[in-house]
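Intended use. Records such as the Outer membrane protein entry shown here are meant for training and evaluating sequence-to-structure methods. They are not intended to support clinical decisions.
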Amino acid sequence: MTAPRPRPDRLFPIDSMNISRRKKVITAIILALALLLVSCFLPPRPFDEKKWRAQVESTDPALLYAPHLRGGRYFNPWMPMQRGFMSFLRWVISEKTPYPQAEEYNLPPVISGLYKRIRSTPGDFIAWIGHSTFLIRINGEYWITDPMFSERALLPKRKTPPGLSLDEFLALPGRKNVIISHNHYDHLDSKSIRRLSTDTRVFVPMGLKAMVNNFGKKKVVEMDWWQTVSCGDRCQVVCLPAQHWSRRISQNTDTTLWASFLLVTRGRKIYYGGDSGYFIGYREIGRLYPDIDYALLPVTAYAPRWFMHYAHMDPGESLEAFRDLGARYFIPTQWGTFRLGEEPIGEIPSALSRAAQSSDTDPARLLVMSIGQLLPIDNQKQKFEQ
């Protein structure tokens, strides 16, 4: 009697898990190819600037003070954000706005030797390290905004180096203070925060204290919108609203707050806008805190407008925010380092110049800095270090 042949699946067991994974991979490849094909035919969505402006103007200023936490998630009560995966998907697969090839390489100049110039410069100053990272020295203390020294902001890679290395920053004498505006990776860089000394004082919006504590920082001041804390002799930090959102891989959407900040010291007020879309809050901040000396405002990731308009400002809106604040000088932030929107990261100087001309803004009040540039602060006279 002939013995029965063993079934092939007994000799070579079929791994149902591998088959399932294979199907998923094949499905993902087919979907990616389909999206790529669709993107060749899907034009950018039009955007109505007048309608958007009317929506901004119709918001109630009283809502700037309304509760902004519901069910464990923060929101902008004056104009809650409408988001959806389909909108994001459409942006990904839509045709991209063409820009002149030269603008892709028009990066901001990088001035070397900032550490030596800091050590040899007496008095107070503002220096641009790159992206949203600014180093401010006032009354002998250092303040740094959204310290980002890493090569990548999760995925986007730096196009320009920081004007000061993290080791050089750590070597500076005196107490150091950090202001963090929100938890996006280009603003809250865990590698940079972890390397700061344990006694560094860190000011963060609501919900971020535990994370920064886990990064090894113990002196963390968690603040809500419109809250003021003392930071020394005639020194205050004011936490103020911004129109944005929050998300990290380790944190769900909007479970931590986003904010702008005002640093008030003897005879000086410096506003740091973090990341924000244009909203009526700038007028209220300017009304409550007149005579702001410097407004550091974001100008980036504004294209395409139909997708980016809520959470980011274009050059015209940033200039309007500057006028709303009533500040003396405007310093653009968050450009020239990471490409986050469709627009070239180096187009901001020319775009701001055009916007200033069309709005009759005095160009002398626009301080477009180079990376590594140091701006001495003097109540009587302001000038760039060339």
